[in-house]
Amino acid sequence: MFTNKTGWETVTSSFTTDSTSTVELQPSYNIPIVLLIAAIPLLVVQVWVGVVIALLGLFLLLQTATIRLQFTATDLDIYRGEKLLRRFPYQEWQNWRIFWNRIPILFYFKEVNSIHFLPILFDPKSLKSCLESRCPRI
Asked: How far apart are the first and last CA of the chain?
């Protein structure tokens, strides 16, 4: 549990069906770790490709450790530490999708004025349950 800015305690869990509570998704290090492991043999075969993949893996590892997604009753909030980076009100969403259900790696959502693609650096099952309960697909 953590206390939000209003002083109320909020339960952080990996699954909830209550669309009025705030849910903070747990980080998932799967994608960064796979990229870093894949970079090792690539460094032997093709150095520049291996370096690029390793740098991408390190960047995503840092993002996974610092970025948090919170589903509130009305918005998807993205935080770095305690600082709110961006707020996406559900009322502006037109569609969302998780690509490659067996191995979820990319989350897409479209707002009225923009399209967003995010790597899945958080628990994909919790992400899907939060999206389905708060923002049913059109």
From this structure: 32
What secondary structure letter does DSSP report for 16? -
Prediction pTM value: 0.78
If you count them, how many residues does the chain have? 138
Q: Which candidate, 98, 128, 92, places its Cα nearest to that of 110?
A: 92
- 136 near 78, Cβ under 8 Å? no
Three-state SS at 120: coil
Question: In the Cβ-directed half-sphere of 83, how many Cα atoms lie within 13 Å?
Answer: 4
Q: Which two tokens stand for residue 51?
A: 């370096």
Interacting residues of 103 by C-beta distance below 8 A, sequence separation 6+: none
Q: What is the pLDDT of residues 83-97, one digit of tens each?
A: 999 999 999 999 999
CA 127 to CA 48: how far, in whole Å?
34
Cβ neighbors of 4 (< 8 A, separation 6 or more) are 10, 22
